[in-house]
Each structure stands twice: as structure tokens, then as C-alpha cells.
């Protein structure tokens, strides 16, 4: 009888040790996922300020890959942007465009680094990064984009003055 009590206690101890390891691995996974995500998008919480001239400014940090990625909104919904001065329009993945309720317009072809792609024209009511809001933005819905990240092209960036200093990009609305 004492033997079965020891076996029961031993099994309980092993079970608790296993549970502790599973919890520790889960917590480490969460920690490192958050760490990697903040390295990919260091601008999840957009930092803005008012300049000496009274103009709103958005300050973005470059990610570890050399890109400027930030959180913003499209038609009031939170999204993730990658600034792309080489893109003429805002490019939205088709799956995300559907979630945002954007309608596909006329097909249009773009020359990209991956070759010619067919996308569909659309218009975004509003795009915002921090306090900056741009309205009636020409954009394209790209069925070939697999990420859920929007390429923020010149149809938005032409409304913004930007200055790069080291790993920091300062955005100001054009007057």
C-alpha cells in the first residue's frame, strides 16, 4: 500500500514537471514571437509629435531588414503598412481588400520587381498614420500579394514630406 502511494506521488511529480516545462515553453514562444514581431514592425505604436512650426510629425524607426513598417488605418481599420517609394499606388493584398470591403475596379497592369502583374483599381476613403490622414486615395488590389501587409506607395507618400536621419524617418503632411 505504501508502494502504491509512492508511485502515485512519483507520477504526480512527473506530471507537474511536464506541465511546468510545457508552460515555460509556451511563455518563451510568446516572448520570442513578440520580440520577432517588434523587430519586423518597430512602429506598432506610432510615435508622433508636434514640430516647432506646429506641424504634426510621425517618427518611424527602420526595422532590422532596412524597411519602414508601421501600423496605421485604412477606412478606420487597423492595418500594417510598408512604405514603398518605388510603388506608384497603394498596393493591397486581395484577401485584405476583401476584409476591408474594397471593391475591385478596372484591371490594370504594373511592372514590379517580380515581373508584370494584373491588379484592380480601387479607391480608399482614408489612410492614416498617427495624426496624418489622407483621403480619397487611389490604390490597387493585388491578388498576387500573399502577406497581409499593405505597400504604401506614392499615391499616399506624395502628400507627405519625409526626412531620413540614420535609422529614423520623419513624416510631415505637405502643406
Report on this model:
By secondary structure, this protein is α+β, with helices and mostly antiparallel strands. Strands 3, 4, 5, 6, 7, 8 and 9 form a seven-stranded mixed beta sheet that branches. It has a four-stranded antiparallel beta sheet with strand order 1-2-11-10, with no helix packed on it. It contains three helices and eleven strands.
Q: Which stretches are low in confidence, meaning pLDDT under 50 for 5 or more residues running?
A: none
How would you characterize the largest beta sheet?
7 strands, mixed
User: What is the name of the CATH superfamily of the largest domain?
Assistant: Acid Proteases
User: Number of DSSP strands?
Assistant: 11
- Helix-strand pattern, N to C? HEEEEEHEEEEHEE
Distance between the termini: 86 Å
Number of helices: 3
- Structural class assignment: alpha+beta
What is the CATH architecture descriptor of the largest domain?
Beta Barrel
CATH topology of the largest domain: Cathepsin D, subunit A, domain 1
The overall pLDDT average reads: 86
Q: Assign a percent range to the helix content.
A: 25-40%
Kindly provide the radius of gyration, computed on alpha-carbon positions and rounded to a whole number of angstroms. Answer: 23 Å
Task: Supply the number of structural domains.
Answer: 2
Shape: elongated
CATH class of the largest domain: Mainly Beta
Amino acid at each position: 500500500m505504501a508502494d502504491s502511494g509512492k508511485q502515485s506521488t512519483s507520477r504526480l511529480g512527473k506530471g507537474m514537471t511536464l506541465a511546468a516545462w510545457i508552460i515555460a515553453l509556451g511563455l518563451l514562444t510568446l516572448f520570442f514571437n513578440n520580440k520577432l514581431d517588434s523587430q519586423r514592425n518597430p512602429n506598432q505604436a506610432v510615435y508622433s509629435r508636434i514640430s516647432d512650426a506646429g506641424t504634426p510629425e510621425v517618427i518611424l524607426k527602420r526595422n532590422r531588414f532596412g524597411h519602414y513598417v508601421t501600423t496605421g488605418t485604412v477606412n478606420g481599420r487597423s492595418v500594417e503598412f510598408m512604405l514603398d517609394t518605388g510603388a506608384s499606388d497603394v498596393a493591397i493584398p486581395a484577401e485584405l481588400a476583401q476584409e476591408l470591403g474594397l471593391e475591385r475596379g478596372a484591371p490594370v497592369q504594373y511592372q514590379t520587381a517580380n515581373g508584370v502583374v494584373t491588379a484592380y483599381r480601387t479607391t480608399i476613403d482614408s489612410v492614416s498614420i498617427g495624426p496624418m490622414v489622407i483621403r480619397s486615395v487611389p490604390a490597387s488590389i493585388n491578388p498576387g500579394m500573399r502577406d497581409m501587409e499593405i505597400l504604401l506607395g506614392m499615391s499616399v507618400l506624395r502628400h507627405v514630406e519625409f526626412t531620413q536621419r540614420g535609422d529614423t524617418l520623419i513624416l510631415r503632411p505637405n502643406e
